[in-house]
Amino acid sequence: MTVAPPEQSAPEMRDLTTLTCGDLELVIDPVFGARINSARLGGHDILRPVLDETDPEPLQAASFPLVPFSNRVIDGQFEWGGRLYELPHNWDAEDNAIHGEGWKAPWREVRTGDTFCEHVLTGTGWWPWLYECRQITEIGPDRLRQTLTLTNRGASDMPAGLGFHPYFPRTPQARLGFEADYVWPPIDAPDFDRGSITDVFDFSAGKPLGRAHIDHAYEGWKGRAHITYPESGLSLMVTGSSHARHCVVYVPEGEPYFCFEPVSHLSGALNGVAGSNAGLTCLRPGETLSFSMQIEAHLAP
How do residues 41-95 score in pLDDT, each as one tens digit? Predict the structure, then answer.
């Protein structure tokens, strides 16, 4: 039986985890979804800093983990192993189940040092299967790396997916570049289907983000993306695990941020609408799925 996701509120006292290496500083909040609150290199924000560190709302964060699936499950319902499952509503803005439960659940810190930390999440009952997920965060003088490892602790096969949801600063001159094979619209779009990458959705040569609203998944991502800020000389390279074959790009109109999300499966994978290349993983009891994201940052001299 599934249960509603736990409600979060700001405790009177809670410890944030701060990692430092050279000019790079990273702050993580274990209580609020093991989210990143800020990541700065030499005073420059690599990620959009948290809007309010006392607010448990994950969408306020600089980045948060996607566990045990990415993006949306239509109406919170899906079939698996010949059985229909229904996930309780977990975001007031829509009727779909979204981003799993790791983004809203408290994680437990089990290891920490100057440049690394490890947090653990045990399934709360919102997801129909028992599981454990570990997030290891490591930083160097010019990079941060996060690895999620999801283990099926239940007695039956479990569908699984992982990803990261980082928010990047959006400046007038910011440029994004990456390659992929196909593009998919949001799962509630009337024309939801795989499409060729053309015009506004084509970032293969690198270009400014423009004014168009984008909320699309990309199939066949080549595993790296370049983000540059000519105003400051900051450049970022985002890479994923060797099996990171998909990503989501979210560019909202009029907002000072955008998202480039490395994910292990396409949006709608649990509903079967993304086809055989969706990337959803079947974890047998005791099996694990790992997924990593790395962001390298450089400042022009």
Answer: 999 999 999 999 999 999 999 999 999 999 999 999 999 999 999 999 899 888 9
H-run or E-run covering 188: none
Task: Report how far residue 118's alpha carbon sits from residue 145's, in angstroms, rounded to the nearest whole number.
Answer: 12
- At 28, the amino acid letter reads I
Count of other CB atoms within 10 angstroms of residue 68 = 25
Tell me which residue of 165, 171, 166, 164 sits closest to 255, measured CA to CA: 171
Q: How far apart are the C-alpha atoms of 265 and 70, rounded to whole Å?
A: 7
Q: Cα separation of 218 and 211, whole Å?
A: 19
* CATH code for the domain defined by 17-299: 2.70.98.10
Q: What is the model's pTM? A: 0.94
Domain boundaries, the chain: 17-299
Neighbours of 14 (CB within 10 A): 13
Please give the C-alpha separations between residue 1 and each of 44, 86, 87, 181, in angstroms, as whole numbers: 46, 10, 10, 39
Contacting residues for 7 by C-beta, under 8 A, at least 6 apart: none
Distance CA 43, CA 20 (A): 13
**CA atoms of 123 and 126, how far apart (whole Å):** 7
d(CA 77, CA 7): 21
Entry field: residues in the chain: 301
User: 293 vs 93, which has greater pLDDT?
Assistant: 293
Alpha-carbon distance of 67 to 160, in angstroms, equals: 8
